[in-house]
Amino acid sequence: TRGTDTVTLDQLPLREDLRGRSPYGAPQLDVPIRLNTNENPYPPPPELVEDVTAAVREVAAGLHRYPDRDAVALRRDLAAYLSVSTRVPLTERHVWAANGSNEVLQQILQAFGGPGRSALGFEPSYSMHPIIAAGTRTDWVPTPRRDDFTLDTERAARIVADRRPDVVFVTSPNNPTGGSIPLDELETVLRAAPGIVVVDEAYAEFSSQLSAVNLLDAYPAKLIVSRTMSKAFAFAGGRLGYLAAAPAVVDALQLVRLPYHLSLLTQAAARAALRHADQTLASVAKLAAERDRVAEALQGLGFSPVPSDANFILFGRFADATASWQAYVDRGVLIRDVGIEGHLRVTIGTPEENDAFLEASKEVPR
Ligand code: PMP
């Protein structure tokens, strides 16, 4: 055996607080129907593929130089998209971008969390929030949602006022439960928060609620709205997340970002993809209609789907969710066991994929 194969993880001088932890990871299984990571099931249209390819070809001649460190042109394009879709005028000074919204969230905790500081989230929610908190050594304060997974914002505000976390995460629509919160309820939390409130709007395009971007001018020292091109934009493989906030927040994040974190190729590809936003986002209405059809069909089969404003549905009940998850896999359908007792989460796919999922749902053990 090679020397490199003789050392195990517990023999390494790893940080004590990371020992025994598991990395984030949904199983990436090679099955026909993959409805487990909330991606857009529709591949990019040929014109978009052409445009991305041409854009990458053009910038490739400059690959010997570092890219624009501030990604100004891309941020301007993202600001233009947000301004049109939310009707809140924003410029590149209000927008920051990174490799997926996970990196955006990590930079936020690097700047506003960290050792001796805390971040609070309403669980169940996106499982990366506590993992990013752990990685940045930010204390995590889990706070429960109601039994029906909605957020009791009056109670949330009391807890936030009491615990005084440096950062509060509100995911809207919430992953993995699907519900979103109206702006007036969000304001109840914002008013109570002593520090930063991150509204994680990864699924905002699927939602019927107004974006928290509308509250930026009222809470400029508190509010950060995080977005991604991974879901509605069908650009998960391109890795592009972004945020909208006051320009001062963008200045703060420059202190922790790595120089040239967004590659020349990423910036060019994301800008090309954004030029086709209208075409890509045309899938949103189709997916929302499919979501409602699947929820109704699940109901008809005797399941209890949780009302969703996103491109996925949490549903139950199962006596043994993990065993039922495996029964779906055995039928070629990969969905997600998110660790909520009695429940599984399915991402909305194409009508054919959804039908295959519904067929399997008739057969799996409850
Ligand atoms: N926030 C939420 C709520 C998510 O569900 C996800 C993706 N699962 C992300 C952020 C991160 O996505 P990405 O890094 O691809 O932008």
Automatic annotation (TrEMBL):
InterPro entries recorded: Aminotrans_II_pyridoxalP_BS (IPR001917), Aminotransferase_I/II_large (IPR004839), HisP_aminotrans (IPR005861), PyrdxlP-dep_Trfase (IPR015424), PyrdxlP-dep_Trfase_major (IPR015421), PyrdxlP-dep_Trfase_small (IPR015422)
Catalytic activity: L-histidinol phosphate + 2-oxoglutarate = 3-(imidazol-4-yl)-2-oxopropyl phosphate + L-glutamate
Ranges in coiled-coil conformation: none
UniProt keyword annotations, A-Z: Amino-acid biosynthesis, Aminotransferase, Histidine biosynthesis, Pyridoxal phosphate, Transferase
Keyword Transferase carried by entry: yes
Gene3D superfamilies documented for this protein: Aspartate Aminotransferase, domain 1, Type I PLP-dependent aspartate aminotransferase-like (Major domain)
Domain Aminotransferase class I/classII large: from-to ranges: 33-360
Species of the source: Prauserella oleivorans
Cofactor: pyridoxal 5'-phosphate
UniProt GO molecular function: histidinol-phosphate transaminase activity
Pathway of action: Amino-acid biosynthesis; L-histidine biosynthesis; L-histidine from 5-phospho-alpha-D-ribose 1-diphosphate: step 7/9
Enzyme class per UniProt: transferase
Oligomeric form and interacting partners: Homodimer.
Keyword Magnesium: no
Family listed: Belongs to the class-II pyridoxal-phosphate-dependent aminotransferase family. Histidinol-phosphate aminotransferase subfamily.
Name of protein: Histidinol-phosphate aminotransferase
Pfam family, one: Aminotran_1_2
N6-(pyridoxal phosphate)lysine, modified sites: K231
CDD domains: AAT_like
